[in-house]
Amino acid sequence: MKKKYIVTDRLITKITGWMAGLIVLALTIWGGVTIWHYYKYEETNDAQVQEYVNPVISRAGGFIVAVKFEENQHVKKGDTLLIIDNREYILQQEQTASALRKSQAQLEVLESNIHTLEKTAGAANAQIAGAKAKVWKQQLEYDRYKQMYKEEAATRQQLENIEASLDVNNSEYKSAEENYSAANSRITDVKAEKEVVQAEIQRLHALLDRHKLDVSYTVITASYDGRMGRRTIEAGQMIDAGEVLAYIVNNETDKWVVANFKETQVANMEIGDTVEIIADAYPDRKFKGTIISLSPATGSSFSLLPPDNSTGNYVKIVQRIPVRIRVDGSRTATDRLKVGMNVNVYRPKKQYHG
User: Long-range contact list for 294-298, CB < 8 A, 24+ apart?
Assistant: First the structure.
């Protein structure tokens, strides 16, 4: 029995030694890989995928008639997403169109009045010329009879009759001048009314265009190719202008990663440097990226309450610098990367720039 225990102890010791050796070897390999990575790369796991996620906002209020999209659906630019009941907007448009036609008719009437008044003024002007000729002729007759009266070749009654006729002709001449002036004044007044109506027509044209826009706003379309987010609305729901109805992820722009590197890691980083990106969701797949910008300040500086170390209670904390990295590759190749995914970013330390 003693010999059997000795053999068993030796076997256990041998297995334990091999296991310890394997553990030491694994730790050595892991340590070597870690040191090699530390030597070769600047890396961070404080990074997320970003894309333009824009709200779909209604520019008109009303009841939703139809919803033309589903959650996570791919849409093309111009595809109809929502339809709002447009009957009230069409009625407003028709009312404005009717008011516009009325004003245009008023403008035609005023133009006709101006034409008529111009003819009236022309007739009054002609009467002025005739009355002036009569006054001139009667004045000569009066001067002649006045001379004859002095020479006692005409009676006082004849002179008075000629003088009365002269006064009548002068009165008719003044009346013709006043009629002509009144006609011109009326033309000026009608032209002023015409300018008012023309201004009203311009206002109604602008209002009609606005109503047409309101009608067009009742059909909400996709502004670009993209993917719809969560659907929270249904037909029959009442919405207000300016209300956010859904979100759409823009497929027409590049994806990017915001990687928050430590301030001690960005000394040699430059725009144009290449990086490797590994998403937590796809650890066996590598994506390529290019640095396109570095933040002008640390992330904490943009916070609502940035830290202030001037109080004297200073504790030095390594700050983070947001680095924006464009994800290279086609849209199909990068489609697996979704907004908000956590990724690890590796930037080779030794990069040469021409």
Answer: 294/266, 294/269, 294/321, 294/322, 294/323, 294/324, 295/321, 295/322, 295/323, 295/324, 298/263
